[in-house]
Amino acid sequence: MSAAINLTVEEVKASEFNCTGIRRRFPELDLLEERALDDCLELLDDTVSELENALSDLSSKTAAKNENDMQTLLSGAMTNQYTCLDGFAFSKEKIRPYIEGRLVNISRHVSNTLAMLNKIRKTTSFEGEAFPDYGKMKGGFPRWLSRRDRRLLQAAVEDIEPDVVVAKDGSGNFTTVGAAVAAAKNSSAARFVIYIKEGAYFEYVEVDKKKTNLMLVGDGIGRTWIKGNRSVVDGWTTFRSSTVVKKDSKKAAMLRSPKVLPNLLPIAPKR
User: What's the predicted TM-score (pTM) here?
Assistant: First the structure.
C-alpha cells in the first residue's frame, strides 16, 4: 500500500509539471482557462499533501487508529482530480484532453489504494455506532472532540466568549470575516472563536492551511450571511465560487476527519 501511494505521489508531481507546460504551450488562454489551470495546480498540490499525510499515518505505530483519517485523505485526493477537470467544462481551447488522461490515472490509483485500505480496516471496531466514519460516539459527538469543543457547539451565541468580533457597522474588532481569519495565529493549538454579527458580508474567505482551530459563529440562518456572485459566465470556476473555504481542504468529505474537523468548526446557529 505504501508503494502504491508513493507511486501516485510521483504521478501527481508529473501532472503538475504537465499543467505548467500547458501554460507555456498555450500562452493566450482566456481568463476561465487560466483560472482552471490555477485550480488544478492548487488541487494537485493538495493531493500531494493528502497522500503524504496518509502515508505518514500508514507508517506510524498507531496506523490502526488512523484508518478513518486515511480514508478521508485518500477520498479527498481522488476527488481533487475531478474538481480539476470540472474547471475545463467550458474551455474554448479544449485544454481538458491534455490533462484528462493523467488525472483519471491518478484517480484510479487512489481508488485502488482505498480498496486496499477497506480490506484491512477493522470495521468491527465501531460496530453498532450510528456514525462509524466518525469513530466512537459519546453524547452525540465523536469521542475525539474535546469537552470544550462540545460545549462550544452546544452553547447559545450569547454564552460564547469570542476571541474577536466581526461587525459591518464597525462595532467589532473587524468589519470583514477575512480580516478576522487573517488575525488568527498560525498553527494554533487553542481554539480561536470568531463571532460574526448579523449582516450580509460580500466576500470570499479563504482559510489558509496554517490557520488551525478556527470556529466561526454567526447569528443564525437568515441573519448572518457570507455572500458572493462568482459564476462561469464571469470567468470563474465552480472551485473558486465558494464563499468560505479551507484552502487545503475544499472537499466536504474532509470534515469527517478527526485531524481536520477541529481545525475549522462550522458556523454555529443562534439557539
Answer: 0.76
Tally the C-alpha atoms within 13 A of residue 115's C-alpha that lie toward its C-beta: 7
Res. 134: pLDDT tops 90: no
Window from 107-116, 207-216, 222-231, 246-255 with minimum mean pLDDT: 246-255
- Report which listed range, 120-129, 139-148, 161-170, 207-216, is most confident: 161-170
Is 153 buried (19+), middle (13-18) or exposed (0-12) by CB count in 10 A? middle
Q: Where in the chain is the domain with CATH 1.20.140.40?
A: 2-123
Q: Is the pLDDT of residue 93 over 80?
A: no
Q: How many Å apart are CA 99 and CA 95, to the nearest integer?
A: 7
DSSP character for 225? E
Q: Which CATH number applies to 145-268?
A: 2.160.20.10
> Domain 2-123 adopts which CATH fold?
Butyryl-CoA Dehydrogenase, subunit A; domain 3 (1.20.140)
What is the grid cell recorded at 242? 465558494
What's the Cα-to-Cα distance from 108 to each of 49, 66, 180, 228, rounded to whole Å? 18, 22, 40, 34
